[in-house]
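How it folds:
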Amino acid sequence: MSEPAINLPLEASGGQPPVPQPPPASTIFRGPNGIRAGWRVLIFLAIAACLVATVNLVVWLVLHFILHSRPQLGVISSLSPTTAILSDGAIFVFTALAALVMSRIEHRKWGEYGLPVRFAFRQHFWLGTVVGFLAISASLFAIFALHGFHLSGLAIHGATILTATAAWTAAFVIVGLGEEFAFRGYLQFTLTTGIGFWPSAVLMSVLFALAHAANPGETKFGLFSVFCFGMLFCLILSRTGNIWWVVGFHGGWDWGQTFFYGVSDSGLAPYHNLFNSSFGGPAWLTGGSVGPEASVFTPLTPLVVGVLFSRVYRENRYEPLGKA
């Protein structure tokens, strides 16, 4: 049998090799991989801000009508499952939608920004949830060992236990999704392509702490604890490649702190918590009105968790594509 003819690329081009196209020139707006990271961040924030402004206007009009017709309702100021779901749920929706728009602009999959759907609520999430609950339990036990924390029986009974457990569980899953995607999702991913992972981690952890500064009674030491948790969450992100472990940890810590043990969360008192509890002693031990997050023991928690975590998860898996 005769061999089939082979058409070489040189023959198709008249014997001349194809001329490579020069890369697009770099400018202040574009780098070798497209729009520069800083501009992508600004576009993302602008989209999220427009969404927030639109929804806030609608909510303000609705609340203005309700409070005008029923002023006895007053203003909702306590931490409850409803307020947590509405506030952090809105954060998640706004940032997720803004990231979806950016994924179309950048020709990437939305899951590359830290929340791949195929890993949703699987092993990493549940492991993080357990570790988060154990971490807040260890912090409170250390305070208890120095006679600064006490449990004094159930705060709710009967069917309320079931409904409150379900409500707070849903609320803190949403809190974890909202806060972690806002600070460890698109922004962390994009800044990493521009200035590197750990400089981005420090910046986002500082912003994460400052976002808690408006909480009632928050202290500088409490904000330092939040910063330490932000750095821990970035470490976990770097080793797991996504934020599902972190979402679980965040939710497990807050669920244990607010609902299970019934202590203040960054100065916000709990509602329909499982146990009644009380603190006694100096603020450096108990955290004062802020709660255990401002205790001297709390910054030690992310340190210990980080060391143990690094011994189990040794390989870096977070690698945003390209530099811009």
